[in-house]
Amino acid sequence: MTTISLIIFFRSVSVFPLSEEGRLPPVQKEKSANRKINVISSLVGYMARRNFSRVMRFEEGQRPSLPAVSSGEPRLLYLHVPFCERLCPYCSFNRFVFEEGRCREYFSALRKEIRLYKEKGYNFGGVYVGGGTPTLLLDELEETLDLVRRCFSIREVSVETNPNHLVPERLERLSRIGINRLSVGIQSFNDDLLKAMDRYDKYGSGAEIVERLQQAQGRFDTLNADMIFNFPSQDMAMLDRDLDILLDLGVDQVTWYPLMVSDSTRQLVTRTLGAVGKGREKAFYERIRERLGREYRFSSAWCFSRKGTMIDEYIVDYDEYAGLGSGSIGYLDGVCYANTFDLAEYCRRLDRGELPLMAARTFTLEERMRYDFVMKLFSTKLNHSQLMAKYGGHLSPRLWLDLILFRLVGALRYSEPDWRLTKWGCYLWVVIMREFFTAVNNFRDFCRAEGRGADMPLSKIQEQTHE
Questions:
Q1: Range of the domain at 295
Q2: Cα torsion at 169, 174, 176, 179 (round to 10°)?
Q3: Does some domain include residue 184?
Q4: By CB neighbour count within 10 A (0-12 exposed, 13-18 middle, 19+ buried), where does 2 fall?
Q5: How distant, in Å, are the alpha carbons of 23, 103, 177, 404 from that of 18?
Q6: Which residues form a coiled coil (predicted)?
Q7: Residues 254 and 292 sit within 8 Å (Cβ to Cβ)
Q8: What's the start-to-end Cα distance of the chain, in Å?
Q9: Is position 38 within any domain?
């Protein structure tokens, strides 16, 4: 779709109906408004999907490398621990069933990679440990975080975990080793959904998860509840019940993602959870926003916090982040890169003193601008002056067009010095970020499927990822 046709389309769906809808009966008026919303969100999703799939095309024909350290801007260190006790059907992160010996060997390699970043002059202000389930071996996690603090100027530490690890002895140790934010993968408190996800037996019933969250409250600066909405079998009553529980608990933070299904996990998700559709996604999101918005502030379009703190989407608070660990993706100085997904190859490369990079792509200036535009607005606001200053007072014509189009459909408003998402704009950014993470997940899935990315030509990855 060309730029001109996009402008004509947005004008037709946002301006022309204003003169016509006033003559319609209320029911037809509501249907007309819903049709516009569905058409616009579908178009935005399509454009985001197309753009993000293009961005995920990594470069071939040259050896990937990290950019030299060029500034002292705050960066985040992401550490990936790819081991789980149970593999969820919808998850596309690089992960393996837990084996203690394999996991210990991996942590040793991860610490070697940390030292290589230190040797190259990188520094980080925060560390986010994700997975997988990083809390499977607490002695290894503690040793790794001790190393990170010795190497870098760490101010904040966030770690992911699962509900079955919220027991007194583990919680005491996690608190003692200085974790500021603990993010708990809950997804839902509904027992039927937990069983469909194959989480009920291993991670506990909804009632058991509530008890464990109560044990964890007050031990950390922030306790985050990770949730998912828009499961195929979920209805509004089930969502409201999850909301009731969270509001009664009063957790510090709630991150509530839409269900995101990559191309290669769709069949498994359909078989275990049902066919995924987007017809109720907006209604679910609006209920979450309405109820949590009364007691929480927005940290991102789908993260709700009681106070300023780290969030799962560290891309909002940090312009740059290093991705360490097998299958990690990083973004430093305009270079997006990925580590090998093959565990054995990852360990071999680090044993040789080499970074385990698999692929890299240098963003153009316009791509960097649009990346900042999307990620900063995901926080619900974008400081216009800061963005202009970052790029020497000039923004690309296409970025200005994006601003105009989103303003035209009522997704953005300007309140100096910020562009801010409207209520409608927040949902559009949920759509955009859903497509962003789906594109990343598609890349991960194909890397895993084809020999875990150890020696696979990038052209083969990209050909399959962007079909």
A1: 75-305
A2: -160
A3: yes
A4: exposed
A5: 10, 60, 58, 19
A6: none
A7: yes
A8: 18
A9: no
Q: How many domains does the chain have?
A: 1
In this prediction, residue 453 carries a pLDDT of 41
* DSSP structure class, residue 368: H
Domain with residue 152: its CATH number is 3.80.30.20
Residue 108 located in a structural domain: yes
Q: How many CB atoms lie within 10 A of CB 42?
A: 12
Q: Which parts of 409-465 fold into alpha helices (H)?
A: 423-449, 458-465
Q: What is the pLDDT of residue 444?
A: 79
Pairing mode of beta strands 381-383, 418-421: antiparallel
Taking the model in full, what pTM does it have?
A: 0.90
Residues 6+ apart with CB under 8 A from 342: 326, 451, 452, 453, 454
Tokens of 132: 């997988």
* Mean pLDDT of the 52-56 span: 79
- The token duo for 114 is 């940390």
Measured distance CA(242)–CA(245) in Å, rounded = 5
Look at residue 343 and tell me if it is in a domain. no
The tokens of 431 are what? Answer: 């759509």
